[in-house]
Design goal:
Beta-Lactamase; alpha+beta; 15 helices; four-stranded antiparallel beta sheet; disordered N terminus; 529 residues; five-stranded mixed beta sheet; single chain
Amino acid sequence: MTPTLVQVDSPPNNWKALYLFNLYRFTVPTVFVASVLAGISPSYLGPFDERLFLITGCLYSAFAFISFFAIKQNWLPFKVQVLGQFLLDILAIILLMHASGGVSSGLGMLLVVVIAGGSLLTEGKTAFFFAAIASLSVLLHASLADLHHWFSDTNYTHAGLLGISFFATAFLAHTLAQRIKATEALAEQRGAHLEYLAQLNAQIVQHIQSGIIVIDIVGRIRFFNEAALRFLGLNEQAMDRTLSSLAPKLAEQLTNWQKSRRSVSPLFRPEAGEVDLIATFTELNQRGTTNVLILLEDATLTAQRAQRLKLASLGRLTASIAHEIRNPLGAISHAGQLLAESTHISQEEHRLTQIIAQHSQRVNTIIENVLQLSRRSSANTQCFDLHAWLQTYLDGFIILQYLSNTDIHLQSDYHTLMVCFDPDQLEQVIYNLCENGLRYSQGTPLLELKISVSEDSNRPYLDIQDQGQGMTEKVKAQIFEPFFTTESKGTGLGLYLAKEICDANQASLQLSSNSNLGCCFRIYFSSEL
């Protein structure tokens, strides 16, 4: 019969179990030998042949001691060590039993422990192989004792019962071992599945566009994702710090929620953030502790989505209306020109024809801007040096606007700064912002442009600062709305188109400062395609 043992590359837990069982193997014979030598042993230990008992016990202890190093250093494969050690256990216990008076000494029960340990450490038929060897050894010893009259009586019944107990132990231990292994396999499978789900959830949470923050009952940050860091302008050292020390405005919104229980906060902008945010609060109750889950949404994106939905239908409607207006407008403009060329009109009537031409041109400009809303082409994004491009553009802009070189000042913290944008569309954005600034600026220089990189988000930006008197809060709240203007001759589409163009190029346009010293518009660029 060839026993089937565990595979050679046995798991670390099997080696640990073998090591612990070897500790038992070393302790039993050592205690036996020590008690006999000290004269305090029970009467059934070694009365038949004390010398054989002591020699066998010492050799058994020495072998167990050496086995510690063999197991630790993996001198032999696992299956070889298990087979060799358990066969030697059977031999040593049979000799100890013989030296103590045979089966009647009761030492044969030690073989039950050996078989149970061997059954748990092996698989297949090996457990029954150990039981068979032990049973045959006990029966052979009983037969030899009866044949040579070593003892006064020979108990075959006791030997047979021991054999039965060996097989029963092997069967039960083998069944238990199979169930333990099946449970371990299932636990390992479920553990791997849970680990996969945990990694998947972590990846989803880290790469989701919404910012996620979890704080405990005392307001300390327990978890955050990359989006939350970006929105709040924080760094990775935020863990275990209080929310009030890092983001006071968000902490204020949390306090208001705890009082009113309104789950969605109004718009707010963090001190170090670059966009307006909307916070949603939810309680998390787990094992008697209460945490708060905070979801941060970019209000700019939400507003853009709503604006696009509104303007999608509005664009089609206005494009149709603009097209229909153009035909009668052309007729009015042509009629005005013909009337102006007539020799029969007075000077006052000639002035009226100029008004007709002037306002016809204005209406045509409005129509062109409206049509531009509905047919704006996609961005042809390119990466280029912003400083060199802007210097070239301003040289032409100064000539176009009849300005001097001292009217516009360009400051840059970097001689070379790469950004990604559609150059033609960027020219349209810069023109709108500079033209608006020149309209209100009164100091010297009229415009100040600054190129730098944000310390919070590490994104390149361009500031366009005028020397005007600023704007009211009412005007500030509507400057990026389409068709909103404070000029009688304006269309109200310049800043709106500039912001839409920036969004299409993965950039952002915002009013960074507004005071009686002037306004500053900032464009945050993308540095990657």
